[in-house]
Amino acid sequence: MEERLAAVERENASLRKRMARQNASWLFGVLALAAGVAVAGVAAQDAVFGSIKAKEVVVVDDNGTVRARISGGVPDAVMAGGRHDHLRCRGH
Questions:
Q1: Residue 23: inside a domain, yes or no?
Q2: Are 72 and 88 in contact (CB under 8 A)?
Q3: Buried-state track 62-77, b at ≥16 Cβ within 10 A, e below 16
Q4: Stretch 13-32: mean pLDDT
Q5: What Rg do the C-alpha atoms of the chain give, in angstroms?
Q6: Number of domains observed in the structure of the chain
């Protein structure tokens, strides 16, 4: 009985060491991933593009309200209850 108890205690100690190494590996991986994301975020903020191609660009504020829209299919502006198509750019 004592022999079996000693074997179980040795196995338990071995499993604890293995789990500690595994937890340390996971922690290192998560920290490395977070560092990589932070570096990529800083690099993206300073990025300069020679060209951007999009069908539509929409600018929204922090509340999700559309503040500006650049698109070929934008309807006429509505001001004072009426439509004003003279506000559209006609290739000038």
A1: no
A2: no
A3: eeeeeeeeeeeeeeee
A4: 94
A5: 30
A6: 1
Query: Above 50 in pLDDT, residue 92?
Result: no
Instruction: Name residue 51's amino acid.
Output: S
* Token pair listed for 12: 């338990």
CA angle 22, 24, 25 (to 5 degrees): 65
3-state secondary structure the chain: CHHHHHHHHHHHHHHHHHHHHHHHHHHHHHHHHHHHHHHHHHHHHCCCCCCCCCCEEEEECCCCCEEEEEECCCCCEEECCEEEHHHCCCCC
In this prediction, residue 30 carries a pLDDT of: 93
Tell me if 44 is assigned to some domain: no
85 close to 74: Cβ distance less than 8 angstroms: no
Show the domain range for 78. 56-87
Residue 46, domain member (yes or no): no
Q: Domain for residue 61, yes or no? A: yes
